[in-house]
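Action item from last week, closing it out:
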Amino acid sequence: MVRLVTLGCVGLGLWLGSVSVHAQTADGLMQQMEQNQAQMPPATAEDEAISCLIEPSMQASLGTQVEGVLEQVLVDRGDSIRQGQLLARLNVGVEKAAVAYQEVKVAYGSRRVERNKMLKQQKLISPQDLDEIVTERDLSELELLERKEQLKLRHIYAPFDGVVMDRMRDPGDMIKQELIMKVARIDPLYVELVVPATQLKAFHKGEPRWIEIPLLGQSFQAHVSVIDQVVDAASGTFRVRMVLPNNKRRLAAGLRCKLKR
């Protein structure tokens, strides 16, 4: 009986020892895994490529301040435009006639002033009379300038070199202070980035940076022009703008890109 108890105790001891060894081995593996994980650098925003978007450097929605019938549209979507180029105009018959009428009044007023200057030299009219005649002539000239400005309001000119993005109206449409077309400047282009706040000191105004356009499989050099000094607290990011030359218009606005490191 004593022998059986002894054997049982020995067996139990061996089993407990085996369990203890296995437990120690498992604990060691867990500790080793934790150490390995602690040695691995944490994933940060810097490990991810910074995406960017290419946009026009300037956009404008063009219309008129006056009402009228759209008489002529000289450009269409996709056309290139030059600064000062006439793009469209409303009907101008009445305004042209008003300008012509006022030009005649100004010419008559100028002749009248010259005649009365001679009369004043001969002391046939008073200085006050001559002053009134000169004032009438001057007011006519100012009114002529006003009529010309009213005529100009019925014309739409390109505010800068660029392209027509969209055309919303056609000849014959009645325009009531509405948009007629949208234009954009694409030389240069702007590259807009949203960057993690941890990289706030990694950008410097004027420095060159390379961007990659996956759709084209090409890289281009741009220069940093604007760095926001206020970080968005919600997203932990700030914005950066770069200027991308496009004098040959090889690139189109709206393309997505990536900042090369």
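Closing note: Helices lie at 2-39, 93-121, 127-152.
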